[in-house]
Write a structure and sequence with these properties.
138 residues, Aminopeptidase, two-stranded antiparallel sheet, 3 helices, globular, CBPC6 carboxypeptidase, Peptidase_M14, metallocarboxypeptidase activity, hydrolase
């Protein structure tokens, strides 16, 4: 048994703008609310991420996706998402302010995902262990 806290499947999207996520929906309202925290934090860190385009669902057509499969298999402290990012551009400020994605913009979004993990664990100080094993000294 492995305790997996996060699973994020990353894809490019051919029709929608910005970055956004798909998450699972659960009967347990508290679990559903906890799952919304990471995308909300990412929205604060990344100007090209859209929480309003983020969707939580359990559509039958998505049953075979990684987030749906693992979301049903793992325990309720695991969070499974699909991160979608536009092939083309993101919107800043209004519908006419499209900014083309560049390699650097994609890299920046990746760094912002990493920052969001730091924010998440600071916010939920439930992880108070070192990030890497501490070497033993003699």
């Amino acid at each position: 048994k492995i305790n997996l806290e996060f699973y994020i499947d990353i894809h490019a999207h051919s029709t929608m703008m910005n970055g956004f996520m798909y998450g699972n929906i659960f009967e347990d309202e508290e679990r559903f609310q906890r799952q919304a925290v990471f995308p909300k934090l990412l929205c604060q860190n990344a100007e090209d991420f859209s929480y309003s385009s983020t969707s939580f669902n359990r559509d039958a057509v998505k049953a075979g996706t990684g987030r749906r499969f693992l979301g049903g298999l793992l325990n309720d402290t695991s969070y499974c998402y699909t991160l979608e990012v536009s092939f083309y551009s993101y919107i800043l400020g209004g519908p006419t302010s499209a900014v083309p994605y560049t390699e650097e913009a994609y890299m920046k979004l990746g760094r912002n995902v990493a920052r969001t993990f730091l924010d998440y664990y600071r916010l939920n100080s439930s992880v108070e262990r070192p990030l890497a094993p501490t070497p033993k000294t003699r």
